[in-house]
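User: Could you walk me through two proteins back to back? I'd like the raw sequence and the structure tokens for each, with a short line separating them so I can tell where one ends and the next begins.

Assistant: Of course. Protein one, sequence then structure:
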Amino acid sequence: MHAPKPVSIQIPADRLKIGIISDAQLPVTRRALAKKDTYLQSLRRALAYYREIGAHMVLFAGDIGDLGSCFAFRTYARAVREAFSGADTVVQTIMGNHDYWGKGLVGALPHRLMFRLLVGEKPWSHYVVNGYHFLGVSPNCGSMTAGYKKVLPWLETALANAAASSDGKPIFVMTHNQPRNTCYGAEDWGDDTLDALFSQYPNLVSFSGHSHYSILDERSVWQGAYTVFSTQSLSYTELEEGKVNGTIPPHAEEAPMGFLLELSDRTFRLRRLCFAASGVTEEKPDCPWEFPMPFVNDRRYAFGPRQAKNRPPVMPDPAAHARLCGDKVRLTFCAGTDDDFVHSYKVVTDTGREFLFFSDFYNGLTRMQSPVELSLPAADLADAGRVRIYAVDSWGAQSESFAEASLF
């Protein structure tokens, strides 16, 4: 691949505003879009919001389409043109693994060619905006775990050049996958080829999509040898395995989310936005992720110290209720409380069986419901007489208190 030369842009602004979104996974055909346009509407809302606030730049971290089809690429490009017609907004887009998938096209090259022709972008790009380096790094194939092997020589050179002129500024690197075992979701969906290179640059800040894991979880920022943020998605939320209500939990399409990055001489701040159909809102407005400038990786967002300060949740009401509804048992109880939020609930029977459920945090903390209702197959509780329900936070801390219900 040919290494693109950096494109230098100077914007007359004391504070840069940069939107960051990912994983639109637009329908593959016009017929599919006619049946369901939810993801396209989420993309349009996000772009319209960034236009409304005067965003200077928008980063899109891959998976334009559910497959890499001409229709998906064209639909994305049209949405961008319509949103920013007449504006000077810089839009940096990369491909994701889904953008390499699709029937009738063999190999990576045709998909990259379609991307270049229809989206009008190079798969690998390098912008320098007001002295900040932004590297857009598509994978070189549709691999889920090793998509960057052939990209690394270019990326090594680009990072070395960026580091030589970063002058106390972070170097932003946008990939589709996270480096493995970094932020929330990277243990399941991360790429194995990025960490060794990224670890050489303490002022590197990674943005990525792919996992769809909720950015409301404080583990969505990670700091070690470098800094990593995941962006969630504009399509649907997905979470880790092991819960009764599934990796794609109920109403997972209702809260598409992304970021607003604000950069000034004094501050690097990241705000979390929800692009719901009911309106765009800022989530957790009182606790944006923030760093002083010049940027220094002081590991303030390392997992260990934050987990050590964490307090376990509380179940405020000991009473729970159980009722039989057909072949299901429905449990109802008062929602747990936490210094952040209750991530999940553990149901423990008096026979020792355990069942884990996600709470509804992923659809927005102000929309979390109380009382909580959970359903289990009655057959799974056939030998039990009572259940206890504990709250668990995102760091894995479990409440000492519990709600208890008698079964039939």
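----
Protein two, same layout:
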Amino acid sequence: MNVSAKNHDEVSALLTVTVDRADYKDKVEKQLHNYAKNAQVPGFRKGKVPMGMVRRQYEAPVAFEEINKLVNEGLNNYITENNLRMVGQPVPQPVDDFDHNAEQLSVAFEVGYEPAVTIDLAKYEAPHYKVEASDKEITQSVENMQKRFAEQVPQEKIGKDSYVALEVAQVVEEDAEGEHHHPAKNVTINAENKAAFKLVKSLKMDESVKVTKETLLADEDLAKELGFSKADVEHLHHDEVEVSVKDFYGLNNHELNQELFDKVYGAGTVNSEEELKAKVKTELDEYFQQNADIYFVNNVLEQITEKEEIQLPETFLKKWLMFSNEGIQTEEQAAEVLENEKAAIKHQIIEGKLMNDNEIKLDYADVLAQAEQLVRNQLAIYGIHHLPDEEIQKYAVEMLKEEEQVRQISSEVAMAKLKDVILEKATKKETKISHDEFLEILKK
């Protein structure tokens, strides 16, 4: 077996894999003899089927399978041994006359490469903001903790400070046919949910009001606050829903005391209001800084994408798009799709080049650590900050049993490592700003 390359230009080539009959003949014969031993054909005892009959029926498909294996193996080995960084996937050229008995067979593939480019991160400069939490944000975060562990207080009627638990059920018409069981939705609202609150604020306990499907379609805010997406409303089986008040109450925020500190962070971690605010500030600063770091990295990547000359194998990419997408039938269609995707492809090549040049590699420990952090973040949403490490790891291992999760988390880890490289090597213009100022920059 031999692989030869004929370069079209610096970023595309024709790779031809040539297979000799001797490379696969013995494997084909072995397969055919196995078929002959085990084939059950009417009129013949098991193992007594004539070899000529077996050969006529099975030789061509068996040979094709073995040739295909050899060709793919040869192509992949050539790509690996020559350290070729591919763009898209190899596109096989049609084989006009496939004869498995020929002494030699050749299969050609159009391929596209990433261009040779050197990226000097040090020549790229961007603002690197040092973002600090304000007293207002620290106070708000502490108040959110108090609200999370607030005590429910019964009320005589719905007021502007009330939280209202609602049941939302479809109203079945008397003459309705078919399935009538549609599970009710349960939602809790307050005055911030303006449309729903206005609808029920004059109701008493267990009183209800009906809302038409037409109204929900016209008022997306109301529909959303009652638990319906636009698609949910469109697929309602009946013309009305009934919104019933099941409970309403006020909230007394939890006192700022040791009990609250322990509920949020675990026993003895925080022992005073000053320590709490200091810890909250540290957490907010770290979170804000992560966002500021990402802003810096994205800024640098955008500059690189804009300024670096990245030659794409455009002729090949059009062929690949037509080969891999049934909906793309003509070169004109492929050219249009490619034009829309050029920036993304260029961006992907740059990221891959930076990872390769900086020897960014992943291992299971990296992916597991990221999965554990995701578990901690999810638990923190529910106010759980002190689950034992072994329990966190158990949830993370379970998460990594899903292939899509592994792919997504691996991508996050790779980007995190690339982020660290860019933060280290690109040039920073250090600037201190408030979080509000940073948010204004992001809006622009």
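The chain is about 50% helix and 20% strand.

Let me know if you want the two compared in more detail.
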